Amino acid sequence: MTTIDFSPLFRSMIGFDRMAPSLENAFRNEAGGYPPYNVEVEDENKYRITMAVAGFAEGDLGLETKENLLTVTGSRKQDDDEDARRYLYRGIATRSFERRFQLADYVKVVDARLENGLLHIDLVREVPEAMKPRKIEIRGDNGHYIEGTSAQAETRAAA
Prior knowledge:
Elements: H1 7-10, H2 19-28, E1 37-43, E2 46-52, E3 61-66, E4 69-74, H3 80-84, E5 97-102, E6 107-115, E7 118-125, H4 150-158
Antiparallel strand pairs: 1-2, 2-7, 3-4, 4-5, 6-7
InterPro entries: A-crystallin/Hsp20_dom, ACD_IbpA/B, HSP20-like_chaperone
Organism: Halochromatium salexigens
Protein name: Heat-shock protein
């Protein structure tokens, strides 16, 4: 496998030092697998992960978030009755699984529910007010604001 050199990007990007390992991990991990899932974008700051977990009860599933990593696990207990069964064909997989999702900063899980064999996990990005973009006015040498920018005119009109 080839390795991608991200050093040219880091010359002009600051604070993205976790991006390179994340992209390399995405290259290594194959898409698909078990259980199948969808990732939906509901709007700019709302997402939903839907996983097909047929055969799993609520108590068989686990969700955990730690350091921007969402881990979904499923472990089904073997019934004594199931050991006695003989199958001609067994197409419904109920094996244990662990699926991991890397979450962006400020994305958190707000709801998880199991409906009709589908696990729905709702996520929301909540950027703190201090992290949102803001306009900064520029002062001249004499301490007065420099005229001519529409952002400054809007700021003064609002005040």
